[in-house]
Structure formats: C-alpha cells, structure tokens
Amino acid sequence: MIVAFSVSPSATEEDGGVSEAVARAVKVVRESGLPNSTNAMFTNVEGSWDEVMDVVKRAVEAAGEGSSRVGLVLKADIRPGHEGQLTAKVERVEKHLSE
C-alpha cells in the first residue's frame, strides 16, 4: 500500500509555522527504511498495512511533541500484491507524457 499523509500540529513556531515539527515526522518516515518521498504538501510511504500505519502513528506522535493538537490528512492506495508503486505509478504517467 501507499499512503500519502500530511501531519500538522498546532502552530509551534513564532511565525505560525510548523516546519520543525513536520521535520520530526519526516525523520521518523525516513528512518523507517520504507520507500518514501516528501513534497511540499505530503509525505508518501509504501509498505504493508501494519508497517505503514505504524510509521504514520509514530510520525504523528513525533510531530505532536509539545503541541496540544495535531491534524492528520491521510490518503491510501491499497493494492495487494503490488510493490514498488511509489515510483512505478509516476513512471507510467511519464511514459504517456513522452509519447
């Protein structure tokens, strides 16, 4: 499965930003060893249901350190028997664009 998620605690930085908290969450994802990518809006992570949900839970906890509230947006592509889709899906679209 692939999960795209965005986690945001209550504002924790003086300017209302949350980049430091989000960085803690992304660090959890990157240290998980699961395939992942991060863009301006979401972090994507690929693995089994249990692996991915464990990482998301730990990322939310990391982002929420020192905050009384955390928001989580999560979208999942659950496709049993398929791996490597984090890059394969993009490659299929790029192939069509190059035709």
- How many strand units? 4
**Major beta sheet, specifics?**
4 strands, antiparallel
Mean pLDDT: 93
Helix content: 40-55%
Low-confidence stretches: none
- By DSSP (H or I, 4+ residues per run), the number of helices equals 3
Q: Compute the gyration radius: what is it? A: 15 Å
Task: Please tell me what the overall shape is.
Answer: globular
The string of secondary-structure elements, in order, is EHEEHEH
Query: Biggest sheet: strands side by side, in what order?
Result: 2-3-1-4
* Class of secondary structure makeup: alpha+beta
Distance between the termini: 28 Å
Strand content: 15-25%
Write a compact overview of the structure shown.
The chain is α+β, with helices and mostly antiparallel strands and 99 residues long. 41% of the residues lie in helices and 23% in strands. Strand 2 and strand 3 form a beta hairpin.
Structure description:
By secondary structure, this protein is an alpha+beta fold. The protein has 3 helices and 4 strands, in the order E-H-E-E-H-E-H. The protein has helices spanning 19-31, 49-63, 85-97; strands at 2-9, 36-38, 43-46, 70-77. A 4-stranded antiparallel beta sheet has the order 2-3-1-4, covered by helices on one side. A hairpin with a 4-residue loop joins strand 2 and strand 3. Helix 1 (19-31) runs antiparallel to helix 2. The longest helix is centred in the middle third of the chain and has 15 residues, at 49-63. The chain is globular and about 50 Å long. The model has no long low-confidence stretch (mean pLDDT 93).
